[in-house]
Amino acid sequence: MSSLNDKIILFVGGAVGIGRAAAHLCAQRGAQVIIADLDAQQGQKTAAETGGVFFPVNITDPASVQSLAQQIAARFERVDVLIHTAGILQGAFESLDEFSPETFRRVLDVNVTGTFLVVQQIVPLLRKARRGVLILTSSGAATGGSSSFAYGSSKGAVNSFAITLTNRLEAEGMRVNVLSPGNIDTAMKRSVIAADVQRRGADFEKAVADSHLGDPAGVAKILAFLASDDADYVRGVISTR
Length: 241
Prior knowledge:
The protein is α/β, with parallel strands linked by helices. The chain contains nine helices and seven strands. The protein has a seven-stranded parallel β-sheet, with helices on both faces.
């Protein structure tokens, strides 16, 4: 079991889902947990459960992300690991003809521009760590197709962004990894199943069972490992079930 003692880990999007599960496990393994999320109620709850702290953030707003970085710097001075799991999926199963430009822009604004803004502001805090680690979240949808034109496009962009980050930051001793989860039991995944059920007239509970969803706790184990020094030789995209 990889120790995370003395690690300060920032979970952007850590209020629920995979981020929440990873925050719990990393706290159990000795990390100081920082939760940043738009959902203040759930974010504060997760922070309390993990003995961490919560900061509100809207990752599509540059001023909000900058404020987050400033508050973390004032309280902790550095960040050892950034685990960025914030993202949205909209437009599931909509046809190309009916897919709205507004939906496309919204998804890319959160999933791509939001990721960029967070990384841009948090990298200076990672530079203050002995060996900073950035873990971004993509999806199997980036390479295998998605129910949403916007979501699949956004996750492909995250993969490419990570490649560029690696080329720029590796010389500074920072490691960049991308988590690419498959079918995991999260609110987002269940919303996609619900959209599919609605269009097909199927039974929701049966559709969930047939999807063989994985437990977020299983992905949390991978994230905890990637956050540790034991993962120093790991590079690139890590896919999960």
